[in-house]
Automatic annotation (TrEMBL):
Coiled coil: none annotated. GO terms for biological process: actin cytoskeleton organization; intracellular signal transduction; platelet degranulation; positive regulation of actin filament depolymerization; positive regulation of cellular component biogenesis; thrombin-activated receptor signaling pathway. This is Pleckstrin. Major protein kinase C substrate of platelets. The keyword Repeat applies. GO terms for cellular component: plasma membrane. PANTHER family: PLECKSTRIN (PTHR12092). It holds the Pfam family PH. InterPro entries: DEP_dom, PH-like_dom_sf, PH_domain, Pleckstrin, PLEK_DEP, WH-like_DNA-bd_sf, WH_DNA-bd_sf. The keyword Acetylation applies. It comes from the Eukaryota. Keywords: Acetylation, Phosphoprotein, Repeat.
């Protein structure tokens, strides 16, 4: 009896349509000999199958402008398939496992892809992924700052000069010229992102180098709490405060709608301090579809929902009840993933604080100070 191909990896990815220029979330399964993709996880038969024999994979793929974390799989018949992950580490994990599967099925031949490492002749000893983690180290890494330029405020970012300075100080390079090569590679591979017109123009090829060693060229880590704002009212500041926190966890989950009770795949980003869970359309859109304020919330696993239709047969549900008693029902891909999300949300809900505008905090401090003066006066 022929053995069933082993499942190497599965999860939600956004896939570009083969005939139409549409991007839709799919349940993707990586097998030893191919990739299957389903409209829903519970479907018995896939919408399509991509054979891996003779295929090649290219990452990062920057053919689609603002779409981040895209990789391209080219099959033996020279047909391209494009997939988008929810965040950088997820993309790298998929690419790594697909490479291993291709290497195995092609009989041990070494898989060679077009690589930034080769084009800029970086030493093979340099591990970009490990370097990226070192750059993000809270103690010894690059410090994220709030920078102002052209009446805009860039939060959680840093300058190109800071990047090169850090590479020199960490002995990753011998001189600033080498630093430009290494930083350009980090930018091309998606480990750094440009912020602001100056750095974006360079990244799009409008400068001699894609990365700029300048104090007015801004960059940020793709999974940081980066956001840009103009000078605005206190109400806008309150809204932007939601995005100030560090990203604790992110990924795709199923969410039940409040009105139609239908289930849709959404990309969720969990931030702490203040504690917010934002959700996005995974197929595109930089602005969140909504936000769940987690301060004081209750999150628990749900074993059954008798009053509503489940998305599929797997009952891997959990519920978030906010402080103002709004109920959100979410579904994970596995029991392990559900447990991880519940623990992460619980930790953030305990440590986060309510979002209060800067103006409100100043008024509160002033009132407390006046009360203190009054008490001192009464006891004299």
């Amino acid at each position: 009896m022929e053995r069933e191909p082993m499942r190497i990896r599965e999860g939600y990815l956004v896939k570009k349509g083969s005939m139409f220029n549409t991007w839709k979330p799919m349940w993707v399964v990586l097998l030893e000999d191919g990739i299957e993709f389903y409209k829903r996880k519970a479907d018995n038969s896939p919408k399509g199958m991509i054979p891996l024999k003779g295929s090649s994979i290219h990452s990062p793929c920057q053919d689609f402008g603002k779409r981040m974390f895209v990789f391209r799989l080219t099959v033996a018949k020279q047909q391209d398939h494009f997939f988008q992950a929810a965040y950088l580490e997820e993309r790298d994990a998929w690419v790594r496992d697909i490479k291993k599967a291709i290497h195995h099925i092609d009989g041990g031949q070494r898989f060679a892809r077009k690589s930034t490492r080769k084009s800029i002749r970086l030493p093979e000893t340099i591990n970009l992924s490990a370097l990226y983690l070192s750059m993000k180290d809270p103690e010894k890494g690059i410090k994220e700052l709030k920078l102002e330029k052209d009446e805009r405020v860039f939060n959680h970012c840093f300058t190109g000069t800071c990047v090169i300075d850090w590479l020199v100080s960490s002995s990753s390079i011998r001189n600033r010229k080498e630093g430009l090569l290494l930083a350009s590679s980090l930018l091309s591979e998606g480990y750094l992102q440009p912020a602001g017109d100056t750095s974006k123009a360079a990244a799009e090829g409008l400068s001699d180098t894609s990365f700029l060693d300048l104090s007015d060229a801004y960059y940020y880590f793709p999974d940081s709490g980066f956001f840009c704002e103009g000078y605005s009212s206190d109400d806008d500041v309150v809204l932007k405060e939601e995005f100030r926190g560090t990203i604790v966890k992110q990924g795709c989950l199923l969410k039940q709608g409040h009105r139609r009770k239908n289930w849709k795949v959404r990309k969720f980003v969990l931030r702490d301090d203040p504690a917010y869970l934002h959700y996005y359309d995974p197929a595109g859109g930089e602005e969140p579809l909504g936000a769940i304020h987690l301060r004081g919330c209750v999150v628990t696993a749900v074993e059954d929902m008798p009053d509503t239709k489940k998305y599929d047969a797997d009952n891997i549900l959990f519920e978030i009840i906010t402080a103002n008693e709004i109920h959100y029902y979410l579904q994970a891909a596995s029991s392990t993933e559900r447990t991880e999300w519940i623990k992460a949300i619980q930790s953030v809900a305990r440590t986060g604080f309510s979002c209060i505008s800067i103006f409100s905090r100043q008024v509160l401090h002033f009132l407390l100070y006046q009360i203190l003066l009054l008490l001192v006066h009464l006891y004299k």
